[in-house]
Amino acid sequence: MAKDYFQLANLLKVHLAQEKSCMALARAINASNGLGEKARALVDRRKLKQIIDVEEDLVLSLRELRAIDRYLQQFNQGLAKQPLFLQPESVVEKLVKTDSMTFLLGAKPEATDFRVSFSHWDVMAMAAVQHEAYQHSSSIHFAVLDVLLHDNFAAARKAGQRGPWIGHFDGHGPALVCLGSTRALHATEVMLARMFGVQPFDPGECERMPFHFVWPKDLDHVFPSSFHLSLPTEGARTRALEVRPPGGKSEILADTFTRHADGETYGILVAQRRRNDKLWICLAGVTGLGTLAAARALNNMVVSFAPDQGARNSPVFWRPVRAKVFVHPNNPPGRVYELGPLELLWDEPCRWPA
Is the pTM of the predicted complex or chain greater than 0.85? Predict the structure, then answer.
């Protein structure tokens, strides 16, 4: 059982943060049960730590549960209103419960016409998410926002502050799904920065982040970012994800396919429930194929967002995906590659903060 599914631990973690220590939380539980500071703890600090750490051998008595229940009732969180365990759901199932979602896609203005173009792979990714959503509900509503891709950094940063789409990140409204990396979609830079609590377009924030995109420096639209990493000269042609799982070593997940040879690509799935109960999802690949892989893997990413407590954002959940890429045997125009089998890496999503 993943620790996030034990709701009693989730509730007490919030109150531990307010009380600052398990000893102080034990005193607060005593006080809510009419006992003074010098009385023996109804639930001692060691037991509280076991609950919060979700120790597998945890034993709780009815006396302890009743004491915790009286404490939580003060905050309208009594155990009569809260399940002990949360039901794990895929991110798609959580999206469907929002009733509506808005996709943000990068759009490139055409130089010779009053039109914009979308990436074939981003559109395929949007279709993949819609298809999975319709398997759970036929009444969900979709909208699409085009986010113009700028050719210079000053314009990109300005769009991240005052673009016509920026208001969709504030207040209540549909779930938001960003499709594409920070190189392909300025809205992804803004969404990830807000999720992780850093400034967008700021390379100084990179060291703190648990994953980064890696591209050759000479590619178009590789602007300063809080989520880009530059490799030494010998790796300058690498397109990759750099990932840092909690407690683990940094790992470079490099794309290996070429226009003439099969290989692999990588993407990242990132999800957060915001304090206004709005759901934010980012599906981003090292290439467009990686974005499509992330979209197709979304229904297999299971997370547990604890019910909103104290108007807080949930932790950020993220997980990389790997997919096979096959070169199309006939190389038809616009369809050189085919995406093959994919797998989510690691046993479960990572949390940030860990």
Answer: no
Nearest to 166 by CA among 136, 151, 199, 188: 188
The Cβ of residue 85 has, within 10 Å, a number of other Cβ atoms equal to 11
Query: Could you tell me if 20 and 28 are in contact, meaning their C-beta atoms sit under 8 angstroms apart?
Result: no
Q: Where are the domains of the chain?
A: 3-73, 89-352
Task: Give the end-to-end CA distance of the chain in Å, rounded to a whole number.
Answer: 17
At residue 339 the predicted structure's pLDDT band, cuts being 50, 70 and 90, is very high
CA atoms of 298 and 125, how far apart (whole Å):
10
What is the three-class DSSP state of 28?
Answer: helix
Give the distance from CA 135 to its chain's centroid. 22
Query: Could you tell me which residues come within 8 angstroms of residue 54 by beta carbon, excluding any fewer than 6 positions away?
Result: 1, 3, 6, 9
Structure-token match 């995906």, residue found: 321
Residues 255-299 pLDDT 10s: 999 888 899 999 999 999 998 788 999 999 999 999 999 999 999
> Buried b / exposed e across 105-137, counting CB within 10 Å, b at 16+?
bbbbeeeeeeeeebbebbbbbbebbeebbeebe
H helix intervals, the chain:
7-19, 22-32, 45-52, 62-73, 91-96, 120-136, 153-162, 186-196, 288-297
Task: Note the pLDDT tens digit of each residue in 201-255.
Answer: 999 888 889 999 998 777 766 788 999 886 655 555 678 999 998 888 889 999 9
Q: Is 246 helix (H, G, I), strand (E, B) or coil?
A: coil
